Amino acid sequence: MLSAVFLDRDGVINENRDDHVKSWREFRFLPGAPEALARLASAGVRVFVVTNQAIINRGVLTRAAVEALNERMMREVRSRGGLIEAVACCPHRPEEGCDCRKPGAGLLIDLAQRHGIELHNAVLVGDALSDIEAGQTAGCRTILVLTGRGRRELQRAAAAGKDGFMVASDLRAATELLLLPGVDGT
Known about the structure:
Layout: E1 4-7, H1 33-42, E2 47-52, H2 63-79, E3 86-90, H3 106-115, E4 122-126, H4 129-138, E5 141-145, H5 150-160, E6 166-168, H6 171-178
Parallel strand pairs: 1-2, 1-4, 2-3, 4-5, 5-6
Helix pairs in contact: 1-6
């Protein structure tokens, strides 16, 4: 039984920007993402967001500003029929060596403990190999979407011989894949 879906934010739910999403004015839902989130909610699937946001520790945005942006996203998703139960955010820069920054699994493990999620029955959907590695380390099944950095990351995975994950064109396609009989264990 599918216990939860963990989603990366930038590149999966909203457009990934090279200069980072710094305000609601810069936040743009990817086509079909709000509908996919509503579909997951209507199917009774618990949804959580796990996102690296090193812009906090780089001093680009405050933690409060990032949290406000995430809250606005959650309200907008809810107004469209979806539900994101929680957003877990890593504020660390890569060189800080924390265990919560993906590809580390700390965000997933923390959410699982706080919300009673069985990670072996969960799926992580991301647009980067670091997302996929975090999900696999935590024991989740994983889906790489081809939005955001996904196409480039799929080429990197092929060149490095990395596999063990499903591929979907976007969050809407990943949602349909997850809800197919047999894919979620039903």
